[in-house]
Amino acid sequence: MRIFKWLLILWIGITFALNGLLLPFQAMAFDSDYYVKSFLALEVEKTIGISEEALTHVTEALIAYIDKGTGDLKRIENVNGVAVVFYNEKEQEHLHDIQLLVKAARKFLIFVNIVMALAILAVWWLDHKNKRNFLQSLKYSFQTAVIASLIALGTLVALYFIDFDWAFRKFHEIFFTNDLWLLDPRTDRLIQLMPLAFFIAFTKQWLIKVSVIFMFFIAVGFIIPNIKRRKTL
Length: 233
Fold this sequence. Notes:
- The protein is mainly alpha-helical and 233 residues long.
- The protein has eight helices and two strands; from the N terminus they run ααααββαααα.
- The chain has one domain (2-30, 89-225).
- Helix 1 (2-29) crosses helix 6 (131-175), helix 1 (2-29) packs across helix 8 and helix 4 (52-68) packs across helix 5 (89-127).
- The radius of gyration is 22 Å and the shape is elongated.
- The two termini are 31 Å apart.
């Protein structure tokens, strides 16, 4: 029974860490305003040859599609003075793959959180006769979240400083079964919208948000319990 309880605590902690990593990513990944501001800062509209208004339209269509599948990827805009379908067929197929990946990721996150909720209920049932034991178990879960987050963040930071391009390519090779993600910056406007500088900036902002959550885990798992223990001494 003790081993079972520790497995529950471990699952809860890892799920806390997973939420801390994925929820900020999700909030940024589906924020069209963030994308538009980032694109304008990088002046991608000048590189592509479209107006700021057109940039906003194609960006909103892009995010709406990968988020809910509702964006119009066949939208026509003036590019260098010529009316064309902004996203070509290869890009549309790749974005469809991304949308399927988003759906799968959301289902996975819902599943692990449902299991986490059941795990918390199970730990409460095991400790319901002693409230302090239950709070102690949650403390261990947050400590596990700190360790798991630290490992994940350390790995990502190392990849960022060692070879971001390699990590970016490896991510796509793992999560996509085709090579549609290998876009040509000379002909594919999707990669012109999102140069490497965009992904680097996105990763920096995401790591900042994750670090805030990480500090919360540290506070709940280590600092607050130690403060309370000192008061009881």
